[in-house]
Write a structure and sequence with these properties.
Helix content is 35%, strand content 18%. By secondary structure, the protein is an alpha+beta fold.
């Protein structure tokens, strides 16, 4: 008959098993903490990039509003006389504080807005710069718009050095007819002093 070997002193076995379980739990906890830290960093970076993108979009909204007003004012005589309106004023440096474009690329465009800061409640500062230039396909060259298309770029910088830019092309159009053959003011009543000849004056 064979004898079975049964250890008589197994008091330390439970301690070894408990130590192995604690080591395993510690490693799992450390891995979970590291994963949570990475996820928080990713979420923060995504928030910064979104803020910077929205800042660039704010620059586009800003310049569209400003250009719309300038477009109507600078082209009023052309629209009244039936001519095609253009973006020349945006490119040739005639607007105070705006330099003339030097190329049909964004790097040589006219800077309309420079380092416009946006500060929010979270103290995450960002800023944008808006540049306009004549589209490269325009036969008019750098400062002479002939196709009513204007390229715009809003470049933004934000927290932790994030950057974003948005580029759009605006089509400048105006509806209406030329004011010609309008004779109602030309002496129709005795109260009329003189006929209207300058339609740019309001």
């Amino acid at each position: 008959m064979k004898e079975k070997f049964v250890p008589k002193n197994d008091n330390g076995a439970v301690l070894v098993v408990v130590m192995l379980i604690l080591l395993l739990l510690t490693l799992m906890g450390k891995g979970a903490t590291r994963t949570a830290t990475i996820e928080m960093g990713i979420a923060a970076n995504e928030r910064f990039y979104k803020k910077t993108f929205y800042t660039a979009e704010a620059g586009i909204g800003h310049i569209k509003t400003r250009l719309q007003t300038e477009f109507a004012g600078k082209n009023q005589a052309k629209i009244a006389s039936g001519q095609t309106p253009d973006w020349d004023f945006a490119l040739n440096g005639t607007i105070e504080g705006v330099n003339a474009a030097t190329d049909t690329k964004s790097s040589g465009g006219a800077v309309w807005v420079k380092d416009q800061a946006i500060d929010d409640a979270e103290r995450l500062k960002s800023q944008y710069t808006v540049t306009v230039w004549n589209n490269p396909g325009d036969k008019g060259g750098i400062n002479n718009d002939t196709d009513q298309l204007l390229c715009i770029r809003s470049a933004a910088t934000g927290p932790r050095g994030t950057t974003s830019s948005v580029e759009v092309i605006l089509l400048g159009q105006a509806s209406g007819e030329a004011i010609t053959g309008y004779l109602a003011q030309a002496g129709a009543r005795s109260m009329d002093v003189r006929a209207i000849s300058d339609f740019t004056v309001q």
